[in-house]
Amino acid sequence: MVHHITISLCMIVKDEENVIGRCLSSIKDVVDEIIIVDTGSSDNTIDMCKNFTDKIYNFKWIDDFSAARNFSFSKATGDYILWLDADDVILPDDIKKFKILKKSLDTSIDSITMKYNVGFDEYGNITLSYRRNRLVKHSKNFKWIGFVHEYLEVYGNVINSDVSVTHKKIDFKPKRNIEIYENKLKERVNFSLRDILYYANELYDHNRFKEALKYYTRFLNSKQGWSEDNIRVCNKICDYFESINQEYKARSYIFKSFEYDSPRAEGCCRLGFSFLKENKLYQSIFWYETASKLEKPQNSLGFFNDSYWTWLPHLQLCVCYDKLGKHEIAYKHNEIAAKFIPKDKRILFNKKYFSGIGIS
């Protein structure tokens, strides 16, 4: 007899009246119970949640996201626990996949990852996604770790699913995280390697680049960071040096990122662009060609920008070959890029340009 699993959705919320209805409406038909932990809302969040569940708890906010999430997990009664943020939704196609997953899930599985789509271009194409442990076995009692940018520590039998969660941010709370970090520093809390990384990210996002660089360097020098994080840090430092026109230093960090894993399309395209700016067209072509031939790692938990793995290297190769007077090859690359973003104004401009010189 097939045992259909039960799923508890556990969420922590505060002042989410603009998004919570959208989130809960999207998932209500898949989960068996909804647990809401409110950390101090002053708007209509709780009233809106009452339309979906009566399992609503208050939790005194103590500058610690993991404490709140662990409290929400402690209230679950289902076989598996799903967690979402209030500004996440699960789109109809993914709900269908989720229902299939729920029916067929082998209960020896301890955790299921789902893709988290967090960045989109103006055409709705996904530009940034990564995997997160999203559905976990209740009896394993997995715990959240970290007061900000918390993560769920899982082990055992983990599988990757084809279900995606879509992030649809409306309200941005820019200062909240950095203030938590600064308070912890004042309290002389010892930062874990992960805290060092995420504090550096917050500093970077607040344009405090010199301080961010100091923490990023500490992170890389520890030689204990996860390879995916090391690669992202190298990309961030590269961005900074590019922004102050220190091209050589920027490039050195892309080459450094290759120490942590085989070259990624993101790094190859950055090198291509760096050489293109100096009009070193053959070096530029080498790196863009390399990017265009790479296979995107399918089951990695790392962060990927899909444009670098699809249309972007081809659009740039079109520019490089055109500058060299190799218009036929340039045209071909524009056509390949057009398969991914057919209505993009750059693609359309190039098509017009090529037809003007008699190539189509």
Automatic annotation (TrEMBL):
Pfam families: Glycos_transf_2
UniProt KW Cell wall biogenesis/degradation keyword: no
Gene3D superfamilies named among the record's database cross-references: Spore Coat Polysaccharide Biosynthesis Protein SpsA, Chain A, Tetratricopeptide repeat domain
Keywords: Transferase
Domain spans labelled Glycosyltransferase 2-like: 8-131
GO terms assigned for molecular function: transferase activity
Entry protein name: Glycosyl transferase, group 2 family protein
